[in-house]
Amino acid sequence: MNPPPSNDDFALLVAVLPPPLQTAVLRLPEAELLEVVMDLGRPPEARLVGRVARLSDEPVAQEALQAVLSRVGELGGDNRAGIERTLHRVSAIRNRQGRVVGLTLRVGRAIHGTIDMLRDLVDSGKNLLLLGRPGVGKTTKLREVARVLADALGKRVMVVDTSNEIGGDGDIPHPGIGGARRMQVSRPDRQHDVMIEAVENHMPEAIVVDEIGTSAEAAAARTIAERGVQLVATAHGNTLENLVLNPTLSDLVGGIQTVTLSDEEARRRRTQKTVTERRGTPTFDIVVEMVNREEVRVHRDTGAAVDRLLTGAEVGGERRTQQGDTVHVEAAPEVVVATPPGGHVPRGTPALGAPRPGPTRIAAHAVSRELLERVLRDLPVEAVVVGRPENAELVLTLRSRANSPRLRRAAERGGARVVAIKRNSSTEIRRALRTEFHILEGVDPNDVRDAVAEAEAAIQRVLTDGESVPLSPRPSRLRKVQHTLVVRNHLEAVSVGSEPLRHLVIYPMGAGMVEVPDLLQSQADEDPPDDDGDDEAEDTGDDSEAPREDEERPLS
């Protein structure tokens, strides 16, 4: 049966529970209750903010589940039902025969003031996407957005309510959405059709949609945005990066594509010839990552944020927190704007694919993860081993597997450098990592850091100004480290002078050979050695830091 309308929504939810559970739930703090879980043959539980409380020691019987189902609306195609004129949601778990064996009763609340952190974004008229994991409060904020748009801003608002979670169950919408109108969806797979129907039939100025989750719904969202209607929606995902890597929903933020650059463009960008770029204009102008109910991170320019993400730069984002009625805004850290295709590299721009803050993420592909972790424990580096190449900054693989199409795609998605080794041995892994992390036996680490920092700054100047840059005199082993960085950035370098004043001069690609032909013989100590030696020689444990050309070659 359907309970009569009432202002006491929480009491209506409690009323559908069996009497013993009603008493137990009423003892709990109402403001902290998130949901009640009833699974066949298990004790019922109440999930609160930060904890779980057992409601009874008696396991749930089939009769108790049927008693709850008889007091709520009919289950739809998405296995959800509601309580009329309330925002509560009842979700069912079925066995293979279709019988209900579990229920989740989610508490729905209309809380005014929940979008104080986002009010300026809603007022802007731009398309807004709320991103967050389940249970973080996306729907509650979305409901308040609908009310503010309709009542405070006086817009014609249409809510596309697939599971009646925004406007409540029944034919009359819950007061929580204010003056917004509501279109219910007969089946979950028709949400995209109703989204288009709302635009074509009802002349809205704003559309509110919960849980965009399919490619059809993403395409419908783009259609709505291109028709000049403000769109506010939610999607599952912790961060913007999750959305970019989700092939179904990446179009919401512009989509991604793999392009092949010319040799000149690859040198200018300091990256591989095959790179990942944003495909088009994002559907949503602003993306809000919901960290928790009191904290969000705002990306005011979705396109620029995605570009930075794809280039490996810091994504940035404005941090906002709410304490009571006070909203604290922490300005976004200054980030370097990503270089657009064909654009000029501005001074100070970090190399594309530059490592992100924190430990370096390393993935093992066709290489023993146990060996890799063992070697890392013995090296003075800050690094962690991750399971998937697309989540790594550095991928270690065998030379025979380096050109695997699957690995190429994964590395391109994450912008990882791929380093190939001959064999799956600790000696090979150690040699590769010592080269990557510039570890020189018997050399002061501070001297190495100084040499690397000087080379990186000089490389940036050469890429920006197109002019040669001399480096300070360094010992041979440090010059080799600097030369490795030069080659990796598609530039040229020659050694000039005599010891102890011998040093590198870095040139744009092609310039060094033309301007200093008489110096070619003098750079022999920086040239990477040939990798034609036999296997026995490689297993002697020699930890030479000289870069190996085949191990440095990126997938392109």
TrEMBL record:
Single Gene Ontology MF annotation: nucleic acid binding
This protein's record includes keyword Nucleotide-binding: yes
Keywords: ATP-binding, Nucleotide-binding
UniProt biased composition (Acidic residues): 524-544
Pfam family, one: PTPase
Domain of life of the native organism: Bacteria
The R3H domain, residue ranges: 445-510
Ranges of compositional bias, category Basic and acidic residues: 545-556
UniProt cross-references to InterPro entries, sorted A to Z: AAA+_ATPase, P-loop_NTPase, PTPase_dom, R3H_dom, R3H_dom_sf, Spore_III_AA_AAA+_ATPase
Region annotation (Disordered) ranges: 338-357, 517-556
SMART domains (UniProt xref): AAA, R3H
Protein name, per record: AAA family ATPase
Source organism: Corallococcus llansteffanensis
